[in-house]
């Protein structure tokens, strides 16, 4: 059963790619965006991170903390997204512990349907332009998900990706932060 708006966020304690331990409790009192990606070399995931990072400073100034999960090893993430030195936390979860607790889905059908979307090819070319050539992973059918958690620890927005490039938009995140009354 999917998590939904109003549900209490599920606590976790994880180690980032730098070896720093963080937990959801460490971030209590702030809005938090949990972003669940596919594998470390996924071109669409790396494109999304790159695009999102362009807005991160302004979102962080509004109080937002971000934790981005990959179902890859730290080594794989470091070889891909980690090379970009993003200012938010990148977390490996190769055993899918946090993925399972947040009920992040796998769908081979949606994986295949993604490749029928014209937007897939536009994003694929963009990803190659930025040097995200990709790779393969045994869990390619994992779909992305995003959870915006309010300062009170409750889920403000739960977004389960319809395809492997589908995440909350920056506009949706900004609107939710405005509703929370975060500082501007």
Compact description:
The protein is an alpha/beta fold.
General description of the model:
The protein has 184 residues and is of the alpha/beta class. It has a single domain (13-178), classed as Glutaredoxin (3-Layer(aba) Sandwich), CATH 3.40.30.10. It is 33% helix and 17% strand. It is built from 6 helices and 7 strands. It has helices spanning 43-61, 74-79, 97-101, 108-114, 118-129, 170-180; strands at 13-15, 21-23, 32-36, 65-70, 89-92, 145-149, 155-160. The chain has a 5-stranded mixed beta sheet with strand order 5-4-3-6-7, with no helix packed on it. It has a two-stranded antiparallel sheet with strand order 1-2. Helix 1 links the parallel strand 3 and strand 4. Helix 1 (43-61) crosses helix 5 (118-129). The protein is globular, with a radius of gyration of 15 Å. The N and C termini lie far apart (35 Å). The model has no long low-confidence stretch (mean pLDDT 88).
